[in-house]
Amino acid sequence: MPEPSAIADAADEISAKRLSLTPLAAVPAGATPRDLAEAHAVRDAVHARLAGSRIGARIGWKIGCTTPVMQDYLGIAHPCAAGLFAGTTQRGDAALRHGDFVRVGVECEIAVRLVRDLPQGPFTADGVRDAVGAAMAAIEIVDDRYVDWQGIGTPMLVADDFFAAGAVLGREHDPGSLPDLATLSGRTLVDGIEVGAGIGADVLGHPYVALAWLASHASERGLPLRAGEIILLGSLVRTQWLAPGAVVRIEIDALGAVEASFA
After folding, report:
1. Separation between Cα atoms, residue 217 and residue 212, nearest integer Å
2. What does the buried/exposed string (b/e) look like for 8-18 if buried means 16 or more CB atoms within 10 Å of the residue's CB?
3. Given pLDDT bands bounded at 50, 70 and 90, which one contains residue 24?
4. Beta strand segments in the chain, E
C-alpha cells in the first residue's frame, strides 16, 4: 500500500479537481495508485473529503463494467465500484444543468435499495436477494472529467469513482411483485430517439450477481453494505454523451421510466 501521505495527496488532488470541474490529468508525483488495492484506498479517502462538500456523504454505490457492452467500451474486463452521494442523487424526474459537468453522459441502470445489512460473506446471488427491499429504473449520470480517460489508467479511474457523477431514481417497486430482473429489457432515449437497449441478464448474467460481487468488495474494505443504501447495478446500454439541452428518458420493463433534462 502507498504511504498515508501519498493517499492524502492523491485524494486532495482528485477531490479538488472534481469540485472545481477541472479536468484531471494526474496526481502529484509518487501519489498515483499503482493497482486496484491502492486505488480503493485513495477512493475511500476521496469519499471522506467529499462528505463535507456539495456532493455530500456516500449513500450507496454504483458498479461499473458489469456488462459486455461497457467492458468492451472501456476496455476493462472486471467490475469496479464507485460511490453514490447524497448531494448528487435525485428521486423522480430531474432538471439539471449541462454546465455543472465537464462532459456529461448517462447510462441505463437497474437500481436497488437494501432493507438489511450484508455484513459478512460468502455472498451469492441467492443470498443477497432477500436484502433487496425495492428495485427501480435509474439514470446514472457520469462525467468525463479527465484530460484523457483512456490514458489515465484503470487505478486512477477507480480512485476517482469511475466517472460517477450522480443518479436520478425512478419509482420504487416491491421486488416480490416483479419478474426476474434478469429478464427485464431497458432502453435509453435521447430527445425521443432510442440510442441503445439491453437486458438485465447482461449484468454479469444476473443483476444479483453484481450485487453479490459488490457485497464481497465492500465487506473486504471494511465498509459492508447497509440497509438503506442504494446500489446501481450496471448499465444495460453504452454510455451516451449529451449535448446541451438534451432530454434523456430511461425505460425498463416492469420498472417504468425516469427522465432528466440537461438545460
Report:
1. 9
2. bbbbbbbbebb
3. very high
4. 58-64, 80-85, 89-91, 94-96, 104-114, 132-143, 164-169, 185-190, 193-199, 230-235, 240-241, 247-252, 256-262
Domain coverage including residue 231:
4-262
pLDDT band at 75 (very low <50, low <70, confident <90, very high): low
**In sequence order, which ranges of 21-104 are alpha helices (DSSP H)?**
36-50, 68-74
CATH number of the domain encompassing residue 66: 3.90.850.10
Q: How far is the CA of 124 from the CAs of 1, 167, 199, 210, in angstroms?
A: 29, 26, 21, 9
- Domain count across the chain: 1
Cell numbers representing residue 120 in the block:
459478512
Can you tell me the distance from the alpha carbon of 57 to that of 59, in angstroms, rounded to the nearest whole number? 6
In angstroms, the CA 248 to CA 107 distance is 10
As a whole number of angstroms, the distance between CA 172 and CA 185 comes to 17
* pTM, full prediction: 0.93
Prior bond to 122 cis, omega within 30? yes
3-class secondary structure, 223: coil
How far, rounded to the nearest angstrom, does the alpha carbon of residue 249 sit from its chain's CA centroid? 18
